[in-house]
Design goal:
Elements: H1 3-6, E1 15-19, H2 23-45, H3 50-73, H4 80-83, H5 87-99, H6 110-130, H7 149-182, H8 189-194, E2 196-200, H9 211-229
Antiparallel strand pairs: 1-2
């Protein structure tokens, strides 16, 4: 998205409502938060709760594969090409943020874009290793038979350690959202719920990708993962 549509125009002081996040992206975000909380809770409890841990992990894997695919074919603000910027752009934005004169972006800013990418990759590693993990009692991942016990134990170790990285990234994400809300007076929470961001001037976002396309992507991803696991 060019800078003209990314940043507000000083010549236009009208407050306008702009559609930012499409429904599939908002559903992904909300469901992911819930499922990650369920996974951490059930994994901590252990025992009979591990069955729910396996189910929630598989659901998270489905969401992640869907979101990665949607990052290439979805609405413009949801595409990686729109918010994953190069080091120079990230450096410029970080410097401007420190000075207090950073630009306002319609979607993710350059720092936020890399934060999103890091979270997706960390969760993908967590879900993927969980497919092969075991708890040395009764619970095993659905792809446990594909590898040796030694390999499963190693992947289980990665699975257990990587959860701390996920926690750190989640805490960083929440802290950033609170920083923008309390310091920069920019609410990033409501647009992810309603899909709408109110901005002063600027051009509206391009039309969102059709919902039927998201349904097709979800169906294909669900079928492939089901075929892989079962």
């Amino acid at each position: 998205m060019d800078k003209k549509s990314e940043t507000s125009s000083p010549a236009d002081d009208r407050l306008v409502a702009i559609s930012v996040w499409d429904l599939p992206s908002r559903l992904f975000h909300g469901l992911l938060v819930i499922l990650v909380a369920v996974s951490f809770t059930t994994g901590t409890i252990g025992g009979n709760a591990m069955q729910y841990h396996v189910w929630s992990g598989f659901a998270i894997l489905f969401l992640l594969v869907f979101r990665i695919t949607w990052g290439f074919v979805g609405s413009r603000t949801s595409r990686f090409s729109n918010f994953v910027k190069g080091p120079a752009a990230v450096w410029r934005y970080a410097n401007a943020l420190v000075r207090g004169d950073s630009e306002s972006y319609l979607g993710h800013n350059p720092l936020g874009g890399w934060s999103v990418l890091a979270m997706l990759l960390a969760l993908l590693l967590q879900a993927a290793t969980g497919l092969f993990a075991n708890d040395d009692i009764i619970t095993t991942g659905p792809l446990y038979p594909w590898v040796s016990k030694a390999a499963s134990d190693w992947l289980t170790g990665v699975h257990r350690l990587n959860r701390y990285l996920v926690l750190v990234l989640a805490a960083t994400h929440v802290s950033a959202v609170l920083f923008y809300l309390l310091v920069k007076r920019e609410n990033l929470i409501m647009p992810m719920i309603t899909g709408i961001k109110h901005r002063v001037g600027g051009e509206p976002a391009p039309p969102a990708a059709p919902t039927w396309l998201a349904a097709v992507v979800a169906a294909i991803v669900g079928f492939l993962l089901y075929f892989l696991v079962y």
